[in-house]
């Protein structure tokens, strides 16, 4: 494609996707969150906020465009840079966010918004009886996973005693392994692990209680739809990842030879997944703030939590407006403030363990090896 | 789905607000018998109130026989299951209220009207929630 290698095309697409995700964040947060600061909802539509949002949007788009040029001209020569670049762009975008965050936080202090705001907290609590877990969404992903193992078991006798396990970007094998159940099904085991992880997170989300956005009308309905869509999305995600892993397994086993089309074909499902995530999160918004018609019965504002009012200030639990640290909160997952979906509660002892655990496993693996 | 709003500026203390809303959601049929309430720590963490505040509401609900603590430390809705003891308890509470109203000079018909009014608003709310 235009004389570019597959790897370059993938990197450029990936960076573009990340750039789009980062640039739309201000438009998907709760209506009372402005650059990670809890603010009265009416403040959102004022000129300074619009200007800040515009500045952030332009900054992120510029960073993304510059990154594309860098990848095209220099970075493609260094594999390590290609690997870390997507993380790097997130970090750079964070520095476009921080000044806006601190500017709004300062205005909040100077103009004493907290004193004027109401001190109301409305929350939705999921009980075992009311938890919705739409497990049917997990079926496609599980079917692909089963297909991988069925094909693998049927094809096992015809796999040669040494077979290629790694391919260059041109589709030519550059690494071989001895045949064993472990080496043949390594990708399959990764598939099991990612599927299990997604199902566990989906289950946790379906049961996570949260505060609704009081500044949106019909906030209760919005909250419920948000939780349902996030759960369903996490349940459907394995189908994309597993399809990618199935295709790469088929290539490794020699079921078919894809040659030059290997990388684009294998990664197409992952890009489809990213597009789905962007579309769903944009149309839903954090806590359902972007949903157009949240209820079947329109505008019945008499139920609790539907009144539009600001929420009790909770900025002290959000470091830099993005990292949630609250020791008194027993939840380990909470809806993000500046971003889409959920984030971890870093005040929860389990979260610390969750972060340290992978390092421990890697360390143990290194020592045993 | 249990919904609770706590207004920290209200004259009503948070424990009373939580208590009232749980009771009203049980009476409206949003929470039914054998439903498990969230742990008090979750309620406290999400609503940004003290853990002891929620415990106080839960204790009040237990004392009034609305919920009970099971062996595996879960709070379960028990309202609706009324035995002789709860009937007697309700009777004596009503007796106090009615004697109080009579002493203030309310007539019998007035008292009955008020009770009917309370019951009809409740059933109206119940329909609205479905």
Major sheet of chain B: 2 strands, antiparallel
Given as residue ranges, the uncertain stretches of chain B (5+ residues, pLDDT < 50) are none
| Radius of gyration of chain B using CA atoms only | 16 Å
Number of helices of chain A: 10
Let me know the number of strands of chain A.
Answer: 10
Q: Tell me, what is the CATH class of the largest domain in chain B?
A: Mainly Alpha
Largest sheet of chain A: 2 strands, antiparallel
What does this protein structure show overall?
- The complex is a heterodimer of chains A (369) and B (130).
- With 369 residues, chain A is mostly helical.
- Chain A has a domain of 174 residues.
- In chain A, the strands form five sheets. In chain A, strands 1-2 form a two-stranded antiparallel ribbon. In chain A, strands 3-6 form a two-stranded antiparallel sheet.
- The longest helix of chain A has 35 residues.
- Chain A is globular and about 75 Å long.
- Chain A starts with 5 loop residues before the first helix and ends with a helix.
- Chain B is mainly alpha-helical and 130 residues long.
- Chain B has two domains: 64 residues, Arc Repressor Mutant, subunit A, CATH 1.10.10; 46 residues, no CATH class.
- Helix content of chain B is 59%, strand content 9%.
- Chain B has five helices and three strands.
- Chain B has a two-stranded antiparallel sheet.
- In chain B, a hairpin with a 5-residue loop joins strand 2 and strand 3.
- In chain B, helix 1 packs across helix 3.
- The longest helix of chain B has 22 residues.
- The radius of gyration of chain B is 16 Å and the shape is globular.
- The mean pLDDT of chain B is 85.
- Chains A and B meet through strand 3 and strand 6 of A and strand 1 and helix 2 of B.
